[in-house]
């Protein structure tokens, strides 16, 4: 029997992209049948976005770091009774040594460098978590679409039909490539959701394989495709002309990379 506490944890894990694929798909089907539950998820997503955009970040105090280190069994510096009872001469020597150290002019630059390095490492860590979460959502969206009856909202092989439909639904105009490769069939497009935002989903069939291309606006600079593999799928991510692109399929590696290059080349020619 599901308790309110366990249901709350399940919703939190769903919003954070921490459920396994089957559990995520099961909950998404449940949300379609339970509007009240869907509203709870929307509220959680709104809260998460609000915290991410407005919260301030602070370095953990030394005392907290020491407590965590002790719980993990790692050595942590601590001032024992002997240190607190140092003679006045020793304290005076320490003060003088500290003054000489602070008078060393390169120290300011060193501290500035250390601060910049710490911030940079923190940003890399946060971005890595964000990327992992987006990968999970992209995989779940693709898997859900391929096993459901809603592969596309508008079925057409002509970008002149698909592009206006998606533009009217989304509020932005996604680039639509309807023939990236000679042996590829363009099935159409649908409106999907990633990270709580509506996105364009373009759907292709190459042989027996479905390929999903998810697109939404971005403020980032252009970036070349990067590749990951997750749960049997290959995923490519790149940014071009202020649009985020995520491509996913179970094609083999060579075919998948050829598909990515064809899409990117077609967009560059537009």
Describe the protein in words.
The protein is an alpha+beta fold. It has two domains: 4-54; 121-268, Phosphorylase Kinase, domain 1 (2-Layer Sandwich), CATH 3.30.200. The chain contains nine helices and seven strands; from the N terminus they run αααααααβαββββββα. Strands 1-2-3-4-7-6-5 form a seven-stranded antiparallel β-sheet, sandwiched between helices. The termini are far apart. The model is unreliable at 78-86 and 116-129 (pLDDT under 50).
The largest β sheet comes out as: 7 strands, antiparallel
Portion in strands: 15-25%
User: SS-based structural class?
Assistant: alpha+beta
What's the name of the CATH homologous superfamily of the largest domain? MucB/RseB, C-terminal domain
CATH fold assignment of the largest domain: Phosphorylase Kinase, domain 1
Question: Which stretches are poorly predicted, pLDDT < 50 over at least 5 residues?
Answer: 78-86, 116-129
Q: Number of helix segments? A: 9
Order of helices and strands: HHHHHHHEHEEEEEEH
Mean pLDDT: 77
The assigned CATH architecture of the largest domain is: 2-Layer Sandwich
Radius of gyration: 26 Å
* Shape assignment: globular
């Amino acid at each position: 029997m599901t308790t309110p506490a366990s249901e709350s944890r399940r919703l939190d894990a769903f919003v954070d992209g921490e459920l396994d694929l089957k559990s995520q798909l099961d909950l998404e089907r449940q949300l379609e049948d339970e509007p009240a539950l869907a509203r709870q998820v929307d509220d959680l997503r709104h809260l998460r976005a609000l915290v991410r955009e407005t919260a301030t970040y602070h370095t953990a105090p030394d005392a907290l770091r020491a407590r965590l280190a002790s719980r993990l069994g790692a050595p942590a510096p601590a001032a024992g009774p002997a240190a607190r009872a140092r003679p006045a001469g020793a304290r005076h020597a320490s003060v003088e040594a500290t003054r000489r150290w602070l008078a060393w002019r390169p120290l300011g630059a060193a501290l500035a460098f250390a601060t910049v390095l710490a911030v940079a490492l923190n940003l890399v860590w946060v971005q890595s978590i964000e990327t992992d979460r987006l990968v999970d959502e992209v995989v779940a969206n693709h898997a859900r679409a391929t096993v459901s009856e809603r592969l596309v909202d508008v079925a057409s092989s002509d970008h002149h039909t698909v592009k206006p439909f998606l533009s009217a639904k989304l509020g932005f105009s996604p680039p639509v490539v309807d023939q990236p490769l000679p042996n590829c069939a363009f099935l159409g497009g649908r409106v999907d959701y990633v990270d709580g935002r509506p996105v364009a989903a373009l759907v292709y069939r190459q042989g027996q394989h479905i390929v999903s291309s998810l697109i939404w606006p971005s403020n980032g600079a252009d970036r070349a495709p990067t590749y990951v593999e997750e749960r049997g799928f290959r995923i490519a991510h790149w940014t071009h002309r202020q649009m985020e692109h995520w491509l996913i399929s179970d094609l083999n590696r060579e075919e998948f990379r050829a598909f990515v290059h064809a899409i990117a080349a077609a967009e560059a020619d537009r």
